[in-house]
TrEMBL record:
<comment type="similarity">
    <text>Belongs to the ATP:guanido phosphotransferase family.</text>
</comment>
<feature type="binding site">
    <location>
        <position position="92"/>
    </location>
    <ligand>
        <name>ATP</name>
    </ligand>
</feature>
<feature type="binding site">
    <location>
        <position position="126"/>
    </location>
    <ligand>
        <name>ATP</name>
    </ligand>
</feature>
<dbReference type="InterPro" id="IPR023660">
    <property type="entry name" value="Arg_Kinase"/>
</dbReference>
<dbReference type="InterPro" id="IPR014746">
    <property type="entry name" value="Gln_synth/guanido_kin_cat_dom"/>
</dbReference>
<keyword id="KW-0021">Allosteric enzyme</keyword>
<dbReference type="GO" id="GO:0016301">
    <property type="term" value="F:kinase activity"/>
</dbReference>
<dbReference type="InterPro" id="IPR022415">
    <property type="entry name" value="ATP-guanido_PTrfase_AS"/>
</dbReference>
<keyword id="KW-0418">Kinase</keyword>
<keyword id="KW-0808">Transferase</keyword>
<keyword id="KW-0067">ATP-binding</keyword>
<comment type="function">
    <text>Catalyzes the specific phosphorylation of arginine residues in a large number of proteins. Is part of the bacterial stress response system. Protein arginine phosphorylation has a physiologically important role and is involved in the regulation of many critical cellular processes, such as protein homeostasis, motility, competence, and stringent and stress responses, by regulating gene expression and protein activity.</text>
</comment>
<dbReference type="InterPro" id="IPR000749">
    <property type="entry name" value="ATP-guanido_PTrfase"/>
</dbReference>
<feature type="binding site">
    <location>
        <begin position="208"/>
        <end position="213"/>
    </location>
    <ligand>
        <name>ATP</name>
    </ligand>
</feature>
<feature type="short sequence motif" description="RDXXRA motif of the pArg binding pocket involved in allosteric regulation">
    <location>
        <begin position="338"/>
        <end position="343"/>
    </location>
</feature>
<keyword id="KW-0547">Nucleotide-binding</keyword>
<feature type="binding site">
    <location>
        <begin position="177"/>
        <end position="181"/>
    </location>
    <ligand>
        <name>ATP</name>
    </ligand>
</feature>
Length: 354
């Protein structure tokens, strides 16, 4: 396994699998924040200590296998170019925060890209597990097992009263963020999502964009996650999140039915116009591409478009990002050059469907 393996493919192997409610829920993620008990947290730790943690993680876990997660590749961020780091962010294998602080940082990534362990981010470790569709309970079970595996060699910072101790107080307790990535085009088209977001926030959850905090809901993709980590068990957090997600799924499906019933021809026109833009454009900006891809994915889910793969949204949403485009080109590209290459790659990818 090499770094190039993670750079070459836009879509991670696990994303090719179908999951429950995958027409709306693209993925489920459990992220655990953990720290070594004997070291200061990254925000205060000396560089030598952080290097010791990085070295320990490489020596203990590089090329190791745990259950279905094989051959973890250890990648020091300082060895990567800006474009390579951006590609890993675009594939959700590392956070934007980790990409910015790379002198002592690293990441361990499983062969199927389903698990990544960010080293020396805001905490000593940020462990991420992904599953396709709505599989929060399965993801949580695997996260517990993975956490136990790590704890065989690591003494985590833990307090009997407060739980797992973290750099940021908002993560103290379980140290867990559970999240789902949802495609909600009908709720966005009918503007119902604008009324729902404040209500969701009042329940202790947060709605963000595709790359988490500070990002936009590009292509009508929203990330729903818990805000509360203290005072609730991991199971309760997941149960609360799952309850809200089920309601959003129900509302999204009803909104799709209503749009089809009230203005089906207008919706079909919107979908096929977007398909035409993707199929024939010579220049296309990232936001326009994301909007058109969202419309085409909706057309696929509604059975309006049959000749295009269900996974095309996942694949092209990464393939058309600035980092991946420049990785593909093998050089730094201007904004206009990226728009031209983006259009070309989309056309080529759609041709493969015929």
């Amino acid at each position: 396994m090499t770094l190039q393996h993670f750079m070459n493919e836009a879509i991670s192997p696990w994303m090719r699998e179908e999951g429950p409610d995958s027409d709306i829920v693209l993925s489920s993620r459990i992220r655990l924040a953990r720290n070594f008990a004997s070291y200061a947290y990254p925000v205060l730790s000396k560089e030598d200590n952080l290097n010791q943690i990085s070295t320990f993680m490489e020596e203990q876990y590089a090329h190791q296998t745990f259950q279905d997660y094989e051959d973890f590749e250890f990648i020091p961020l300082k060895n990567l170019t800006a474009v390579q780091k951006r590609v890993l962010v675009e594939k959700h294998l590392i956070s934007p925060h980790l990409a910015e602080h790379d002198s002592t940082s690293a990441v361990l990534i499983s062969k199927n890209e389903q698990v990544s362990i960010m080293v020396n981010e805001e905490d000593h470790m940020r462990v991420q597990l992904y599953f396709p569709g709505l599989q929060l309970n399965k993801a949580l079970k695997k996260a517990f097992e993975f956490d136990d595996w790590l704890e065989e060699k690591i003494d985590f910072a833990f307090d009997e009263t407060w739980g797992y101790l973290t750099s940021c107080p908002t993560n103290v307790g379980t140290g867990m963020r559970a999240s789902v990535m949802m495609h909600l085009p009908a709720l966005a088209l009918t503007q119902q999502i604008n009324r729902m977001i404040p209500a969701i926030n009042q329940l202790g959850l947060v709605v963000r964009g595709i790359y988490g905090e500070g990002s936009d809901a590009v292509g009508n993709i929203f990330q729903i996650s818990n805000q509360i980590t203290l005072g609730k068990s991991e199971e309760d957090i997941v149960e609360d999140l799952q309850s809200v997600v089920h309601q959003l799924i129900e509302h999204e499906r009803k909104a799709r039915q209503q749009i089809m019933k009230r203005s089906g021809i207008n919706l079909e026109d919107r979908i096929f116009r977007s398909f035409g833009v993707l199929e024939y454009s010579r220049i296309i900006e990232s936001k326009e591409a994301a909007r058109c891809l969202s419309n085409v994915r909706l057309g696929i889910d509604l059975g309006i478009i049959n000749q295009v793969s269900h996974n095309i949204l996942n694949e092209l949403m990464v393939l058309t990002q600035p980092g991946f485009l420049q990785q593909y080109a093998g050089k730094t590209l201007s904004s206009n050059e990226r728009d031209v290459l983006r259009a070309s790659l989309i056309r080529e990818r759609l041709q493969l469907e015929k």
